[in-house]
Amino acid sequence: MPALHFTAAPDAAEALADMRKRHPDAGPKDADIVVALGGDGFMLQTLHAFLGTGKPIYGMNLGSVGFLMNEYRAEKLIERLAAAERAIVHPLRMKAHGTKGVTEALAFNEVSLLRETRQAAKISILVDERIRIAELICDGVLVATPAGSTAYNLSAHGPILPIDAALLALTPISAFRPRRWRGALLPHRARVRFEILESAKRPVSAVADDFEVRDVSAVDVAEDRSVAMTMLYDAGHNLDERILAEQFSD
Question: Are 145 and 168 in contact (CB under 8 A)?
């Protein structure tokens, strides 16, 4: 039987207490599997919290959407874990340049650039050191992983990517010029650089999952294959199936 550690969002305290009555909690250090109780945001927090440990994460949804989570059921947890399927995810590494130097952060969903004021941002986009868009006038722009393609990226009308696709989604947020540009699919090896134009007049923030850097002048984004995390999903309801089903939902 695997050693389990339970962790929960603040509003899932009751479920956490119930789970710890049913199963011993080995603690974060000695556990073989981490069981996260909450929503998608809490799953992202858990992935970041257990970086480098090699411990797989099994999430149960007690939030709103729960796309990255399994259905919450208190019964037969050990049987579900024994039959669970694995999904390996790699994060994006963001390097945000600003007045305080370079700040690095990882993102399992997306790195997004967002305007800070009423004025639209002006951003130059380079891919593998080649200028692809000299001036994008927009509310923002993002780079999403396959796992994150159904999150903010989908809300911004970006493409949904299969979890094993060696692709990243580059998606504008309310683009004004060029008006008809809807984004691009990039190979996962692509190195993207955003340079902020008129940054003093049109300040921009950069966000890696829930980590924000204000007033950036440039942002570099690339997938970091040296970092990998494992998420566990109930048999027949893995992340591939969820992403496929999302493309046929209303």
Answer: yes
Q: Which of 40, 128, 209, 224 is catalytic?
A: 40
Distance of CA 243 to the CA centre of its chain: 14
Task: Tell me if 98 sits within 8 A of 213, measured CB to CB.
Answer: yes
pLDDT at 247: 67
DSSP secondary structure string for all residues of 64-108: S--TTSBPP-STTHHHHHHHPEEEEE--EEEEEEETTEEEEEEES
According to DSSP, the residues that pair with 167 across neighbouring strands are 187
Residues 9-31 have pLDDT tens digits of 999 999 999 999 999 999 999 99
Strand order in the sheet with 204-208: 184-187, 167-173, 140-144, 110-115, 204-208, 211-213
Instruction: Return d(Cα 179, Cα 75) in angstroms, integer.
Output: 51
| pLDDT mean across residues, the chain | 93
Q: Is 210 a catalytic residue?
A: no
The per-residue pLDDT for 75 is 94
Residue type, 29: K
Task: Supply 241's token pair.
Answer: 């199936």
Torsion of CA 88, 224, 40, 170, to 10 degrees: -110
| pLDDT of res. 242 | 67
Among 42-56, 124-138, 150-164, the range scoring the smallest mean pLDDT is: 150-164
